[in-house]
Design a protein that fits this description.
Belongs to the peptidase S41A family. This is C-terminal processing peptidase. It is an enzyme of class 3 (hydrolase). It is found in: Plastid, Chloroplast thylakoid lumen. With 102 residues, the protein is mostly helical. It has a domain at 29-87: Transcription Regulator spoIIAA. The chain has four helices and no strands. It has helices at residues 3-22, 33-48, 59-69, 75-87. α2 (33-48) packs parallel to α4 (75-87). The longest helix has 20 residues, at 3-22. The termini are far apart.
Length: 102
């Protein structure tokens, strides 16, 4: 590799390293407790669901769209969003069971 090309590559690596080091991810405080509950359900399905095509949908895109578009202001709305997410899998053996209330 020529010296000039080596310097360019090294410079790019340094810029990328500095950029990665100074990047801070959005804080989770921007997410509500209800959003976090939804994400917990989403992650459980993401890790354990047998069909990694998730019934032919982009599972990551579904998560982003749901967090943006689905109302999750109350526990009931969050449970409804989780049930809607599960229903997109079109799998009669995968379902969300709400915890029992006393």
């Amino acid at each position: 590799m020529s010296r000039g090309l080596g310097r360019v590559v090294l410079g790019m690596v340094l810029v990328m390293s500095i950029s990665a080091a100074t990047y801070t991810a959005p804080s989770s405080s921007a997410l509500t407790e209800e959003n976090l509950l939804f994400l917990e359900a989403w992650r459980a399905v993401d890790r354990a669901y047998y069909d990694k095509s998730f019934n032919g949908q982009s599972w990551f895109r579904y998560r982003e769209n749901a967090l943006r578009d689905e109302p999750m202001n109350t526990r009931e709305e969050t449970y409804a969003a989780i049930k809607k997410m599960i229903s997109t899998l079109d799998d009669p053996f995968t379902r969300f069971l709400e915890p029992e209330r006393n």
